[in-house]
Amino acid sequence: MVRAAVAGIGGRMGSRIAQILKEEDGIQLVGGFERAGHPAVGQDVSSITGGAPTGLLVSGSFQELPGPVDVVIDFTTADASLANLQAAAERKPAMVIGSTGFTPPMLEKARSLARSIPCVLAPNMSVGVNVLFKVVEELTRLLGPAYDVEIVETHHRFKKDAPSGTALRLAEAAAAARGRRLEEVGVFERHGLIGERPEGAIGVQTLRGGDVVGEHTVLFAGMGERIEVTHRAHSRDNFARGAVHAAKWVVTQPPGLYDMQDVLKLR
Ligand SMILES: NC(=O)C1=CN([C@@H]2O[C@H](COP(=O)(O)OP(=O)(O)OC[C@H]3O[C@@H](n4cnc5c(N)ncnc54)[C@H](OP(=O)(O)O)[C@@H]3O)[C@@H](O)[C@H]2O)C=CC1
Ligand SMILES: O=C(O)C1=N[C@H](C(=O)O)C[C@H](O)C1
């Protein structure tokens, strides 16, 4: 039985993951934490997952987690996840990180910490989006440079980072298919007299509003026709189930930094 703890257990993703862990075979919830001062700290986890009291209390930090833990599933923030990965590298549980907003130096640091433990870090844990990464790469290659690539992402009003980690990964996939790096060709803002669209640009636009769980559209616009590919998440369940699947997988792997393409064998 895999013993899992959830970082940010009171959050939108953390709470759903904790609920799914209660139903899942082969893995069990043995702890969860929020930062010190969060109202959930010291409460029974059933206040988050529902059901009868379990005697398991929400901790105030990674270090205060009770008992042995095989894997920590972390959907918090990039800063918090990096600090938790540092703690995991010392204490040795594996990690699954879904937080987005990692800068390139933060990713480098994560890669170096993951030399000590196996860690899955992925901006999107749904099967559909991970297949979309492959499809976008292939469409970009097949359509060639005559088709302009634009990515539009829409999320709920509470999301803190922009563009979404998924939109950035989609843009990276398109850039890679053209043998370019996103830093060279990405266009993240348009306003004013900006002139004609630069050849080879990859546009990424962000919309925020209401309770939209997550939508990503990749537009391939040519002269006289266009293709649009859209992924819509109906709920957070596919992300949460993907994270639990990744947790069961990662505990069987040697140290290293992995993503969902590895977990889903899409590489
Ligand atoms: N990879 C994927 O498939 C998906 C990734 N995400 C990403 O997951 C992250 C979380 O999203 P979401 O659940 O909507 O956000 P929420 O704000 O609802 O949840 C985050 C939780 O983490 C807590 N937290 C923040 N810092 C710490 C810390 N240092 N230690 C412990 N807990 C902490 C927050 O507490 P507090 O409220 O006090 O800040 C909150 O309870 C985002 O980066 C989002 O982009 C989301 C969905 C899918
Ligand atoms: O914050 C969210 O909600 C989501 N974040 C992820 C991202 O930034 O790509 C994935 C998903 O779209 C939901």
UniProtKB/TrEMBL annotation:
State its Enzyme Commission number(s): 1.17.1.8
Q: Which UniProt keyword terms apply here?
A: Amino-acid biosynthesis, Cytoplasm, Diaminopimelate biosynthesis, Lysine biosynthesis, NAD, NADP, Oxidoreductase
Q: Does the keyword Lipid metabolism apply?
A: no
Which leading EC class covers this enzyme?
oxidoreductase
Q: Where would I find the Dihydrodipicolinate reductase N-terminal domain in this sequence? A: 3-125
Biological process GO terms, please? diaminopimelate biosynthetic process; lysine biosynthetic process via diaminopimelate
Q: Which HAMAP family match?
A: DapB
Report the NCBIfam families cross-referenced here.
Answer: dapB
In Swiss-Prot or TrEMBL terms, this protein is called 4-hydroxy-tetrahydrodipicolinate reductase
| Record organism | Desulfacinum hydrothermale DSM 13146
